[in-house]
Each structure stands twice: as C-alpha cells, then as structure tokens.
Amino acid sequence: ERPSTWRLIYEGNGLANPEEIMMRVQGIISLKDLPPLTNKPRSVQLWTNIHLRQAVSLTGLGTEKFEQSIDAIIHIHTIFSRTFKDGLLDPWLLSAFKDHNAIDISNRYFTSHRQSPNTVQLPFHKLVDPDRILEGMVDRDIVHSEENDVQYFELNTKNGDTREQYIRTDPTKFRIGDHVEVQMSFVGVPLKGGKVQMMAVLRALTLLDCRHSMVGIIWNIRRMTTLTQ
Q1: Which superkingdom does the taxonomy of this entry point to (predicted)?
Q2: Which domain holds residue 140?
C-alpha cells in the first residue's frame, strides 16, 4: 500500500530518535492566507474542508541570503528524488513576486482520519480559532492534529533586553511587507498516476519587523531603480 506522505527524516548516529528535518528562512511576506477564519465555509463537503489551509509566500527581493535558501530547497528536492523511481517526483516550482523569486509555504488545518487512523485530535489554539469556527468543522472524518499545528510568534524587543525573546502572537498581526522567519518541513504528497509532489509545510511563523508596509517596500524599489538609471 502506498504511503499517504513521505517525510524528510534525519536519523543521526542512531543514538537518538529520528527527527523530521526543519528549515528556517527569513524573508518578506508577499502573499498570505492566515487564520482566524471569520466565516464558516459554505461547503460542508469533507474533501473541501480538508483542503483548507494556512499559507504564506515569502520573497527576498533578490537578496543573496534568500537565494541561498532557495538553493538549499532545490538540494532537498534532489535528495527527495532519490527516494522514487526516476521521473516520479514532480519538479519543485518557485513562485514569484514582481521580478523576484518567492517561496510558497502552507499547512492544512485538518488531517484525514481515514488516511491516518491513529491521529490524535489537537485542540486549536485560541488565537488561531477564537470563534471556534474550525473546531466546529471537526468530525469523525477529519481532525486537527499535531501535523496541522502552526505556531505564530513575535520577536519581543520592547524591554531593552539584548537577548532575543519570542512570544506567542495573534496571526492577525501579520501583514504583507512584514519581515518574518518561517520554519518549514518537507513532505512528498502522492498524486494521480503514481507521481509525487514535494511540498514546503508551514510549521511556525515569527514576526521579526513590522515597520515596513508593502507600499513602503515598493516605493523603495522604485526609488532605487530610479537612482540606478
């Protein structure tokens, strides 16, 4: 029987339990679809609800560090490809913002109980589902599990402490143009015809700097373009 997903695991030296590989990337939010939900979806069909997801797209506006992160993901895709027969893993596709590369990262709110019968229901965090809309969609067919849990943080610099402090924050704080750090993992998802697609899965999103709006960023890009002409 085909697995429901394939995961990138680090086995270490065999002395510790295998761990799923995580990657951290910093960038600017170019697109987002984050909680909370303000209205219950009109459709009550299982296969519609199970595809609901929290998602974010990051761009580095051409910075070298961000492009290095893209190279690292391409390398991870190459490692993944060795798991399957040649040609079965679809190419990993970059997204775009303006003329710059971007990365799409997402995570579903729910897991299929049929595909993962041993999955344990995890309560939604009150900041993610304050009106309990998502909680009301849980039934015997779909559950919110640890695999679906995305944590939202904010870098706290208000106390003048030189040490970095991260506090749990409301997802509604995030805006397009914010400087953030994403923590992601990678899974292979089965497609029709025996094909597989590698997905970047959102695990945590941290707000680092919210002083810049997208309007300000675009203005700066235009100004720099004018200066170099």
Answers
A1: Eukaryota
A2: 6-228
